[in-house]
Task: structure prediction
Amino acid sequence: MKEEVPVLEYSDVSIESRGTMVPVRLKLSDQGITFRNVKTGKVESLGASDLEVVNWQRLAGGYGLRIFTENGNLYRFGGFKESEQSKLEKFFKNTYSKTMTEKEFSVKGWNYGAAKFEGAVLSFDVSSTPSFEVPLNNVSGCTTGKNEVTLEFHQHDDAAINLMEMRFHLPTSELAGDDPVENFQQRVMSKASIITATGDALAIFREVQCLTPRGRYDIKIYPTFIQLHGKTFDFKIPVTTVLRLFLLPHPDQRQHFFVVSLDPPIKQGQTRYPYLILLFSGDDTDFIELPLEEEELQEKYEGRLEKEMSGAQFEVISKMFKGICNRKIVTPGNFTGHSGSSGISCSYKAAAGYLYPLERGLIYVHKPPVHIRFDEISSVNFARSGSTTRSFDFEVEIKSGGVNTFSSIEKGEYNRLFDYVNQKKLRIKNRGKMEMGTGRTDDFDDSDADEPDPYMRRVREEAKERDDEDSSEDEDFVPGEGGSDVAEEYDSFAGDSTDSDEGSEGGSDDQKKKEKKKEKQPKAKTVSEKPRKRKPKKEKDANKPKRPQSAYFIWLNEHREQIKKENPGISITEVSKVAGQKWKTVDDKSEWEAKAAEAKKEYEEAMNVYKASLKTTTPPKKSPKKAATTSAAAAAAAAVSPTKAGSGSGFKSKEFIDESSSSEDSDDKPLKKKAKTEKPEKAAKKPKKEESEGEEDASEEASDEASDEDSGSD
Result:
């Protein structure tokens, strides 16, 4: 029986990549070594037959594995514990028949030694012990001087500190015709990651529309890289940096997006482009013939490319990228939106675009492009979009802590997107607030154009009912009742008009004006200083029906004792808090909502009966406002008519005679004081007397009184 080979997995290790340590998930099996980038999801593998040297070495802050392959590439993994050494040593020996030795490095700190080239690695040895190693595939350029060579390195955008360049001083050789500087440069350039366009391109596509970076570019495909040649900028993309390929149909069914994911991204100044997005029209066709033989195509590309390819331009280009980069092309799965397309129209960061649900993730194009894998997603959430239910937001929370919000999605896409997320077994944050299945209802349903927000409609209806119940007829304004300060102000002005006419008889018009100003000013002050009196509070009607309880309070009354038993010693406020939390978790509220609806119906019927009883029992009121205006008119007529009669025909009232006679024996000041004290009382008494009488009776009484006084004076 064959012994089963154990599998070793490490989820918290890292790999050295362009001068920085990148977290990966490492898996060692009998097939080889596989590691997956945690951030980008890129998977790479080393076959068991490719391994040549395996070393255990000391790294800063821990231990690591140093793996050297047959093709001369160096891989270094860090993050191991010292206790893992014996386990790994046993695994390599039993599985790969490789002896894992311990690699020691010189720590003397000398800056002089010997440079040795081994495959694609430059080793700097001090006293026959390596001091450091430089993978030449990290070198982006090599320049020379008289006795000096300068190495320039690719920069890692996510690294806090980058190594820009390194300089080596080479002494002059004594051998004739031997230039150590030139030899050093040639050996570095042979393994360095420097893209040079040598030879003819396999295929050229002219004036291809590119959305990111924006413009039209000529795409030239070489065996090891892809060149984008534009009017202003040129980009060279190594095939090893291509991470994924996406072919996405446009919702208009006439265009196609071709998306190329890159790691590391291409740069234009300080701008990074992690995605290359090409847009093709479905009507454009193309034909290419590769300058390679059938045997070479089969040997190098294993049948992924054909010598002659024709058809739609997006199909031809996607096949070329797939064959050169050896990457699969990802297309939308079985998802179909409300409009019949595989893309959902939405907005991301104030820019409109399309969200494509895939089999293993989500991708948004195009500004900015976003690709989210399912293993990166912590949870999703369906949220209301502003104050309208015509659209909603789809929030995707990442495990790293960020949230991507795709807003302004049409209401018709809700059910399809919810079913898709539920099928992919993603955690839905607000699942408890929705009902599952095809017949589920939510706040996004039953909305019309007139009232887009059902919540606001419900609030307005409740407020309208509350206003109808609490409303009452406004009481009419009656001067002089209840000690109103407005009535006093009205009486004072009435007294002013009478005094000015009586006390200024026989005087000039200027004197009248001065007296009016002097009398009005202090009276206005006394009116404003008098405190206001409040109206008595209206008593409640015991026969008025009480408002019905809502579904929540009906449920609370039934479960109040149960909550108290479950939480002994709980206070009244805490009972409300616990009840509110429990009410939110209740899935089926139909029982209490039905009871609330029935109570509301009974309340409306009782209110109709109550209002009808008020109309039959309450006698019609006589408007006090009309009586007030009538009495005011009568008072004005009574005050003005005697003076006019006296001035025109010689008739004077008793009141006018007494005051005029007293004015002959005294100055103007006593007259004014008397007017201030006596007249408001008379003016206040007159309306009370005349309220019970009509306007006609008041005028007759005034005329009779004037005639009696006249006869008495004679």
Q: What stands out?
A: Residues 7 and 29 are 5 Å apart (CA to CA).
